[in-house]
Amino acid sequence: MKDTNNGKKAVWKRIGETIAEWIWPRRCPVCFDIVSKSGNLHNGLCCNNCYPKIRFVGGATCLKCGAMLIREEDEYCPECRAKERNFVQGIALMDYTCEAAAHLLWKLKYENGREFADFLTEEMVSRYGGRIRNWQAEVILPVPIHKSKKRERGYNQAEVLAKKLGMSLEIPVDPKALTRVKKTVAQKKLNLQERLDNLQGAFAATDRAAGYRRVILLDDIFTTGSTAHVCAAQLIKAGVQEVYLVNYSIGRSVGSRAGLGAGGENDRGKDNPEGGRRLKGKWDRGR
Ligand SMILES: [Zn+2]
Ligand SMILES: [Zn+2]
């Protein structure tokens, strides 16, 4: 009897999905064409053509921040070797120097592409779900944006991603444990120290943070790690013991970001100068 009921439920679910697909067709997060479950792999969330264009993080990665390493024999990237990091460990999903990933993130953040969080969540869970669960964090905290930005954009992309991931992995999400108290100037022209100075006092942990011991800080992009470092410092000050990171994109560790102020904020666009030039700096136009 139970099987019959489950069978009926599955049929109704499928019918519901088909109607929803018809009314609100899914779009590919990269080319924006309509995708359907029937014609596409990846659960109908990305078209077959674009999927291979997204470069996912793979191979040897930094044990601290999760960036792809240039030298496989290294354990840590040059930045994690050189800098103090307040977080325990991080993982990242995509390489933002690849144009497809950069476009996807751009749409998610600035063009109301909240629906693409479904695709990103599926990829995150299938690749890193086990590892994230193993951290045994009590809560996921999205990196907050300033309330004026949220008003302007209508949402915080990190919060959208956090809610989807939390639902999928059954980890609570608390968007109020960390707040953005200061609107900062665009980071793109700043060097590392200036970035840190710029971010000092930008975030504050609220009373809610004191109730957690192990947390996951979630963000859409990890460039130099300054934001994660500063947020983790606030959380630790409030009583949190361990901060882990889930990032949806990261660059390659090249050890050249020391010259941030001079050439560009990072190696974004290295493999695709055109896409890179167009996208460079956009990320920092405000959180
Ligand atoms: Zn596509
Ligand atoms: Zn690292």
What ligand molecules are bound, each kind once? zinc ion
User: Assembly state here?
Assistant: single chain
- Uncertain segments are 255-286
| Total count of strands | 8
Give structural notes:
The protein has helices at residues 2-23, 78-82, 99-110, 116-134, 147-153, 157-169, 192-199, 226-237, 273-279, and strands at residues 26-27, 34-35, 89-95, 139-142, 178-180, 203-205, 214-219, 242-250. It is an alpha/beta fold and 287 residues long. It has two domains: 1-48, no CATH class; 54-285, Rossmann fold, CATH 3.40.50. Helix 4 (116-134) crosses helix 6. Mean pLDDT is 84; it is low at 255-286. The structure holds zinc ion (2 copies). One zinc ion binds next to loops.
TL;DR?
This protein is of the alpha/beta class and 287 residues long. The chain has nine helices and eight strands. The longest helix is centred in the first third of the chain and has 22 residues, at 2-23.
What tags apply to this protein structure?
287 residues; alpha/beta; Rossmann fold; 2 domains; four-stranded parallel sheet; two-stranded antiparallel ribbon; 9 helices; 37% helix; globular; disordered C terminus; binds zinc ion
SSE inventory with pairings:
Elements: H1 2-23, E1 26-27, E2 34-35, H2 78-82, E3 89-95, H3 99-110, H4 116-134, E4 139-142, H5 147-153, H6 157-169, E5 178-180, H7 192-199, E6 203-205, E7 214-219, H8 226-237, E8 242-250, H9 273-279
Parallel strand pairs: 3-8, 4-7, 7-8
Antiparallel strand pairs: 1-2, 5-6
Helix pairs in contact: 4-6
The structure holds zinc ion (ZN) (2 copies).
One zinc ion is lined by residues 62, 64-65, 67, 76-77, 79-80, 253.
